Amino acid sequence: MPMFFLINKNSLFSLNFGIAIADNSFRGRYIILANNIRQSETDRQKALELLGREPRTPFIIKTRCADGSPQVLLADPVFKEDNIWKPFPTFLWLVCPELKLKAAHLEQEGLVKHYSERLQTDSVFRAEFEKGQKEISKIRIEMAHQILGEDIPEHIVEILTETTIAGSRNIAGVKCLHAHLAQELAFGNNPIGKDVLVQVGNCQGNHERIKQ
Ligand SMILES: [Zn+2]
């Protein structure tokens, strides 16, 4: 039975990014509704169709486009492969075709490098970004606790704590605008995603136009 969670972002507080230990003081501060999410088969099929593959981890639809179709999926941050639990830090997936296309266009215009440089030169932007990544680390660790129990293997704790939402160990390694946009849409705490959203606007659910 997959376990899913609703998380109250207002209850988040900071953790020292880069410290590979579980922060037990944080436990129990989320609103967790394990196994309480009901997903219709229609929703699941639509999400899989947009994702284009069968994911290795269970997921829920975290946000929706204006027409109600899946926009951001939230997956478990750990998965089992060959009977071994492995970390999965990039646990938010942007599946809206319109926003994916617009984010790709911005990447082609060199925005990945732009934001990477801004993280190294704009201290306010950097601080806001680090705060959001710490919050994501806490969410991932808490979800891993719920799935694996108290004893999370050290290598999983390290990856889930020390990588960004885009899977980079370097805080300024922006890598992919889609991941940052997904985090902003899902949790409202990613200044890169926020800036992208200002530029492209949220999806109005006009997906047919994108397919043509
Ligand atoms: Zn959309």
Q: What is the mean predicted local confidence, pLDDT?
A: 83
- State the share of residues found in helices, binned by percent: 40-55%
% residues in beta strands: 5-15%
Query: Which structural class matches the secondary elements?
Result: mainly alpha
Q: How many strands in all?
A: 5
Can you list the strand order of the major beta sheet? Answer: 1-2-5
Assembly status: single chain
Count structural domains.
1
Bound molecules: zinc ion
- Please state the CA-atom Rg, rounded to the nearest Å: 17 Å
Describe the biggest sheet? 3 strands, antiparallel
Low-confidence stretches: 1-36
Q: What sort of overall outline do the alpha carbons produce when their principal axes are compared? A: globular
Head-to-tail CA distance between termini: 39 Å
Q: How many helices does DSSP assign? A: 8
Query: What is the H/E order?
Result: HEEEEEHHHHHHH
Keywords:
8 helices; globular; 212 residues; three-stranded antiparallel β-sheet; 11% strand; mainly alpha; binds zinc ion; single chain; 5 strands; two-stranded antiparallel sheet
Could you describe the 3D structure shown?
It is a single chain. The chain is mainly alpha-helical and 212 residues long. It has one domain. Helix content is 45%, strand content 11%. The protein has eight helices and five strands; from the N terminus they run αβββββααααααα. The protein has a three-stranded antiparallel beta sheet, with helices on both faces. A hairpin with a 2-residue loop joins β3 and β4. α6 crosses α7. It is globular, with a radius of gyration of 17 Å. The N terminus is likely disordered. Zinc ion (ZN) binds next to α2.
